[in-house]
Design a protein that fits this description.
With 183 residues, this protein is of the alpha+beta class. It folds into two domains: 143 residues, Alpha-Beta Complex (Spore Coat Polysaccharide Biosynthesis Protein SpsA, Chain A); 34 residues, no CATH class. It contains seven helices and eight strands. The strands form two sheets. The protein has a six-stranded mixed β-sheet with strand order 1-6-3-7-5-4. A two-stranded antiparallel ribbon has the order 2-8. The chain starts with a helix and ends with a helix.
């Protein structure tokens, strides 16, 4: 009820001062070679900084996401100037925050130090504090992204994963073949 940052703050007792993985459930990344979390952990281990997953979105969709303002990028690692929540005009890039993070436990102190706006702490502002402290990088995640918070993203994710499931793939393919002539 009090926003994403409030929900994250309840994890403090479980983390015990360690870094941790934070994932939002409405984003799936399909990558048969290396999971999105493995990619983030690799980046964390290399740079010893918290890291946020980024994924390119089509330019006319940037208003739906937190968007990275980039200081430097090598194509995969992204040094951030800041993150902008749902920019209405002139987004600084098309790299969207996609709800997968490796966080330091310092995020909890940042959350508790932020001012509340209408009873809510803005998580993007907390991430921007980490950027100002030079403690957060971005990483462009490789794989196919499904935004399951979107109706079409939810359906396409289910079809994609269903086609790979040995228990249902044969029947699903049959159904899809029957469906195609109706389109």
């Amino acid at each position: 009820m009090l926003g994403f940052a409030d929900a994250v703050s309840y994890g403090k007792t479980f983390v015990n001062g360690e870094c941790f993985v934070l994932c939002v459930g409405d984003e799936l990344i399909k990558n048969d070679k290396q999971s999105s979390i493995s990619q983030l952990i690799e980046c964390y281990n290399k740079y010893s900084k918290a890291v946020v997953a980024l994924y390119p979105v089509i330019p006319n969709m940037t208003h739906k996401y937190g968007i990275a303002d980039i200081r430097y990028s090598d194509g995969k690692l992204v040094e951030l100037n800041k993150l902008i929540e749902k920019p209405k005009d002139n987004p600084p890039s098309n790299l969207a925050v996609i709800g997968k993070y490796i966080m330091h436990s310092s995020i909890f102190d940042i959350i508790h130090s932020q001012k509340k706006h209408i009873n809510e702490v803005n998580f993007m502002e907390c991430l921007n504090c980490m950027i100002q402290n030079n403690d957060l990088n971005g990483m462009v995640i490789e794989g196919t992204r499904f935004d399951t918070g979107d109706k079409l993203g939810y359906v396409t994710a289910n079809i994609e994963y269903g086609l790979q499931d040995n228990d249902i793939s044969t029947e699903l393919k049959k159904f899809l073949r029957e469906l195609i002539p109706k389109l």
